[in-house]
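Fold Annotation — chain and its backbone

Encoding — discrete vocabulary of local shapes
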Amino acid sequence: MIFITGPLYSGKRTFAQRLPGTRIAEVQALAAEAEDLEKLAEELSAYDIVMATEVGGGVVPMDAGERAAREAAGRLACLLAARAGCVVQMFCGIPTVLKGELPPC
């Protein structure tokens, strides 16, 4: 599995959704609704590529529920990164490989 995190834009989502074996997730929403983050991470790791929007930067929400969802999203991202053979952070369209190597194009 390749786990990609960072800002995802609508144009990128449209392209990525056409890739077979890809899952694009709003990690904060998935994690907030999940009863078991380990089980969710295991389900998502079955995909070849998992892309998740980064939610950890910026101002910490005042609402306790939003803070809890953000914390769960961070924990889910850590679980996914641990399972992934390759982890890539995208920033301004520039990939930074955090773990493993990108496969040849």
Q: What stands out?
A: The first strand starts at residue 2 and ends at 5. The longest helix spans residues 64-83. Residues 9-15 have pLDDT under 50 and may be disordered.
